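[Solved] Which block belongs to which protein?

Original post:
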Amino acid sequence: MIGVRRFSKRFFASPAPALFMALFGAFAAINSNYLDMGFLQLHQIDEYGFHLSLLDMYDGLREGDLRKIFGYRFYNYGFGFFLLNLFVTMPFLDGTHNAMAIYLPRMVTSLSALVGLYYLYRTARLQVSALTGTLFVFLAISMPAFWTIGSWFHPDWLMTACLLVAFYHFARNDDDPGRNYWRGVLWFGLAAGLGKLQAFVFLPFLFFYVFHDELARLDFSHFASNLKRAVLSVAAAFAIFVALNPYLLHPAGLHAFLRILEQNMVSNATGHFTRTIHGVGEKIEHAVFDYYLSPLLFLILLGLIAFWCTDYFRGGKRRSYQALAFYCAVYFAYLLFGVNKDWPHYYLGLLIPAVLLAPPLFAGPPRAWRIGILSAAMLLQVGYYGNGYAEIARLSYRSSTAERVRQHQAISNFIVESLRDKVETGSIVLISPFTGFDFEHLGLRYRNVFLTDGGFLSHEMIDLEALKLKYASDPELAKVKVSRFRQKDFIILNKAEAYFRPELRQEAYDIVAYDISVEIISQFDRGHLGYRKIAENKDVVIYQRIL
């Protein structure tokens, strides 16, 4: 009993534990919204695709097929992330408990967010009191992205949590050099190996951290040992990455990884295979202002980054915070000028850790000043985002996404009514992304529904011989593609796709693919290629295979 009382006293000495329990309850409630597999397309297309990866891995475990286990498709994300979610959802992957198969991966993400938040708190506590540290936690949870990405089956929060644990150990290493450094390297490797390849953008942190004396004071007396440490650190991180993604050791696995990496880099450069140019202002407006920080707090953040970068060359002692500032500066510049996307989840691993640039500056001012400044920042956030929090609590998403979901419900109703008397249990449907419909109401299951790939239509999506011809030069890839091919009984195309809008032809990333898509639709409309039109409205057009 004495031990229990002692634990209780320590546990409730800070307001943080009660806050974390409340956050867990909030995520448990939010994640229970829209547990419908057909709805997932409207939420995030990646989340919808991830469930197919889990099903394939599940089949691989049952059949003892390593190719299926490691053939999870999303090789820019860690194999460990999918393996963890596979074990969590395994009892519900037979297709009869889809709700839990959707819910549990979201909770894995939510728990990752809470772990990240806990280490943000612990890092802040190295500099400030429990109350002030808790206020910094409140600042992080005032960001709408904390909630929207925290209730999404995606590895961004797992990666960010690992980076926050890594930074915690580096911050401890400032005052107590030794094992904490290598613990930080370990968690950095885990961020990439378990979470996302994107975590390797943390490398500038290691560079500025290790070579502090050389860069800040032009002191090269320890350059050889520092260089050795840097090389060993990077080698250790990559070794952890490979160990957690063992498919890289097989030529076919390495080939698949490099192919996805190349596609991802092209996607970043083209705005996900379009010619739409997202300007710097647009990225800041949508990714930062809409999901993370009000404009005033964003300006303050830029000031903090500038302060710590300058302090680095003044020989300041807190090298972890200085290195974090350089990481933020380099990563932010890359996102603004090197990535043609304004996707909010790309900024999570940047803007959540950036909160930790502030705590060391709050160690000196009087307690009333600290509480007053942080409370004002919180009020500024709440005033700026207003009803956005209510939309997240009610619908799991920001208002713009919620409105899109309501609009698409009418599309779903039209598709269901058009197919109700035509589909059979084994019918296969090909459908445009982000055109989700309640296919379970028609007796269809998840594996019955395929998405058009790459933003365009192509003959290999509907014709097996065309598929074999396209991948004839790559037998390994051809084998995988052919094994996954299914003859499509129905094709549902969303009229929002670019190939329904001639004015967008010149903006298409691949004009040849655009023209092929237009030609295929023209053939469908004339009853050729084995399909005929059976239904159409202002939103979608539906074709059925001619038997």
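(Second protein starts here: sequence line, then its structure tokens.)
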Amino acid sequence: MAPTISRDSLVLHKTKPAVVLRSSDKLEILFQDGKTLNVRPKDVVVLHPGPIDFSEMKAPPGDVLAAWELLEETTTTLAELAELAYGQYTPASAWAAWEWVIDGLYFSGEPDAIHSHSRAHVEKEQRSRAARAAEAQAWTGFLGRVREHRFDPEDSRYLAEVEQMALGQRDKSRVLAELGQAQTPESAHGLLLGLGVWDATVDPYPRRLDLPEQPPLLELPPLPEEARRDLTHLPAFAIDNEGTNDPDDAISLDRDRLWVHVADVAALVTPNSAADLEARARGANLYLPEGVAPMLPWSATKQLGLGLAAVSPALSFGLRVTPDGGVADLEITPSWVRVQRLSYGQAEELLDQEPLRTLYAWATAHAARRSAQGAIALDLPEVRIKVEEGQVAITPLPSLRSQDLVAELMLMAGEAVAQMAIERDLAIPFTVQESGEPLEPPHTLSEMFASRRRMRPGQASTRPGPHAGLGLAAYVRVTSPLRRYLDLVAHQQIRALLAGQPLLDEAALLERVGAAEAVGGAVRRAEQLARQHWTLVYLQQQQPAWRGEGVIVEKNGLRATVLLPALAWELRVHLREELPLDSVVSVSYSGANLALLDGHFKVG
């Protein structure tokens, strides 16, 4: 049976001292703040039998250090410790001695079994406490500096977690919590910008979306020895944006045949090779204004890019264009081609000359056929954003016939390959798009904007299906294997078919489609966010007084979406007056929150 705890005893309830007011099956105890509580006897520990007066609980003079030295590495009781340290065992000295036990530097244990620590233990604990005190002082100093919008070099260890938060590498930040800020990457980004830890040129979005920004560090094998058809006698043209460094398609005219030559990536990157697995994990090239993170090593472009050497290896797709703009008689062959590189602007000047004149006529016929089959053509403003040495250049891209030429011929190759795959039951990644609601051909910017909103996204599929937006019964992307992983997979299947080698089955193909689609969304999102980021940097740092024209492309009362063609930027505004769609309004830049990608503009 537990001993009876007498009235007026000094007891410990949890960590607080109390006096026993009434003792029976339950104890009524009184705390120093005047509050009372009924507890079980086993819920308290007796420190002194009393009597006790809280007004006399001040610790008497004593020498705890001397007591510890006498008791070092022995076990004692609270009564003995109080006698040694304070020369008496009273409620006040008992509580004072117990506080040293709670402190834990010299003693630890229970009232009837208190252990006196060794000198080595005490010295180690003193060093630890000094370090904690210094750390607490450093933390307090850091917070004070941050609140004053400054930081010192030694603060980098605290700011590292904020950077991790801004890059999406952690979910919580002690710094943000202490400052009362939201636990979000945007909040962390804003803090880093405000302190000057980051400047505006830091683009966090690829890392926030867990995308690599550097090329793969892999070696590729040399081009294999194999028969290639010599097509070097045909003039071939790789037409792309000026400054493009990864040309992977070119076009030729061979009497009544169109040839679309494509970089023969699958000759070097075979299924399940290290390069194939890396490209699968990346999904596509990541195109950022500040540079490109390719899905394949740069050596792939160096070896296979069309027109980068006097003669280039290619996988060439030859086809005939029917009178109604259809495609027929597809042949596919590994080849050697001699390619001349042209910008869209240079090609535009050659459209009235052969062979581009005939190729453009075929492209026009194919486009008309697609249009008759429900294709939707959009001509929304586009800009090229380029960052070099911290300077941002934004260049509106003109709508050129040469762009239509190249795009249409690439579609013709993709349509022909899709037809072949269906005829030969070849498992290949098709691109399909459901039709959704019927759309009228758009003509104005607002109609094109609305059409884009209503279109359902295209998707990769192992089964053929129509692509409503393109107006094609079936379509396979095959013209960018240096840039898109599923184009490379299509090439791997085609090459295996040509060589009579084992093909990937539908399950293996589905695995690749799923992997590419999973990362593809992050790639597109990172590119979109990076373009918004650098547009705002351009306005903030280089064009703070920017003014331009906007076009109203969407309305809901006086709330409207305005498209800025010069920046390819959409903004939501509140109009001062009722204006019709496609009205042109004057717009001026007035500031931005870069961390939130929030640009502020004034209309009128």
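Accepted answer:
You had them paired correctly. Confirming on the second one: The chain has 16 helices and 26 strands.
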